[in-house]
Design brief:
The protein is mostly helical. It has one domain. Helices cover about 65% and strands about 0% of the residues. It contains 14 helices and no strands. The radius of gyration is 19 Å and the shape is globular. The two termini are about 10 Å apart.
Length: about 280
């Protein structure tokens, strides 16, 4: 379900319509990070770089400190309103007016919302912040918000799994690259220096998790498999609540929008999420 919903959420970070809305708020749009940090952190309110770095986890604190002071130049409420306008414009452009207004999408939105509303947000700051927002009336916007709550719910659980595995933010990325999730160059987008990356690799090597070349050992692969399993287990609640029939029906309904999102050409084929194409 995450593979189906994540592209529908992630369009916000790449669509030209979203950059238009960000520019109207005064954000620099020559690169995607000012608007990325603005859109994703807005539900947290006027959060500073320390709080955002903690919630986002895998980003270098130095990188967060470069962007977050700027994204708080607009009021969080204005950013949230612009975020929905960006999603509205993007969905109409990517999915098409016919899909946006279809009964199938309305049904998908209702099912996704049911799953999202059943997600327990205790101990999950990004999920809780998004779940506390008012639900948009338009079905396509409700679908996006549900996808966002569910992906942040899963992401917050993933951080708990990383902490249990004693993987700090940069070690989490190094160990993920070590199992072949994506080339190391892709992870440079998280802002860690070469020295920080090398030091993290050395720490993992001392634990027997990577070899001299930086590839995962058997123990390293086992640890990452444990992290992913625990992540899935912690994300299962909403889907257990929706039930097999509702979950299956939602998966069926998401097929068309998923193909449209993937086929838009807006999303990167290699990414730090390690899912090949999102």
């Amino acid at each position: 379900m995450w593979h189906l919903l994540e592209p529908l959420h992630a369009l916000l970070y790449y669509a030209p319509e979203a950059f238009d809305e960000a520019a109207a708020l005064g954000y620099e749009t020559g690169e995607r990070w000012p608007s990325y940090f603005a859109w994703r952190s807005a539900p947290l309110g006027a959060a500073g770089p320390v709080r955002v770095a903690s919630a986002f986890y895998s980003f270098s604190p130095e990188m967060v400190a470069r962007y977050v002071p700027g994204v708080t130049s607009a009021a969080p409420g204005d950013v949230l309103a612009a975020r929905l306008r960006a999603v509205d414009r993007t969905y109409r452009a990517v999915l098409g007016e016919g899909t946006v207004k279809s009964p199938e999408l309305a049904e998908a939105a209702e099912l996704a919302r049911r799953a999202a509303e059943s997600a327990v947000a205790a101990g999950r700051p990004l999920a809780a912040a998004n779940a506390a927002l008012p639900w948009p009336e338009a079905p396509h916007l409700a679908l996006w918000q549900a996808a966002t709550v569910l992906r942040e719910h899963r992401g917050d659980g993933h951080l708990a799994a990383l902490l249990a595995a004693e993987l700090d933010p940069v070690e989490a990325l190094v160990s993920f690259a070590a199992v072949g999730a994506a080339p190391e160059a892709v992870f440079e987008s998280r802002g860690w220096s070469a020295a920080e990356w090398s030091a993290a690799r050395a720490r993992l090597a001392a634990r027997g998790l990577v070899d001299e070349a930086g590839a995962a050992t058997e123990a390293g692969r086992a640890l990452r498999a444990e992290v992913e399993l625990r992540t899935d287990e912690l994300a299962a609640g909403p889907w257990d609540a929706l039930g097999p029939e509702g979950t299956g029906r939602l998966a069926e309904l998401l097929g068309g929008p998923w193909l449209a999102a993937i086929g838009s050409g807006l999303l990167p084929s290699e990414n730090t999420l390690g899912i090949g194409k999102i």
